[in-house]
Predict the 3D structure of the following.
Amino acid sequence: MSAALVDRAGPHETVPGDASRFGIFLPTYVWEGDGQERVDGLLDFAREVERLGFDSLFVTDHLVAAKHFYEVSWLDPLTTLTFVAAVTRRASTRGSATSSSTP
């Protein structure tokens, strides 16, 4: 896809004949002591990602949140997607799940 086509189409329009779609994972981790600034930052991030033209926003559900695997906690994915959907217009929201196991 040429830069001229992208410039002409703008960041939110599909370039004719281009079926490419791009999504991004949202940072849904929280550190102990995080407060409203973490939520505000996540929502600002989602707005900016959409403004840049990404088509979808993903969050990961960590089914096993074992302290020995992670030094952070994770936001609930459905609640996070609800908040993100409330501040975006075009980008779709999606979830994924991971599971950690030890042999």
Q: What stands out?
A: The radius of gyration is 16 Å. The mean pLDDT is 76.
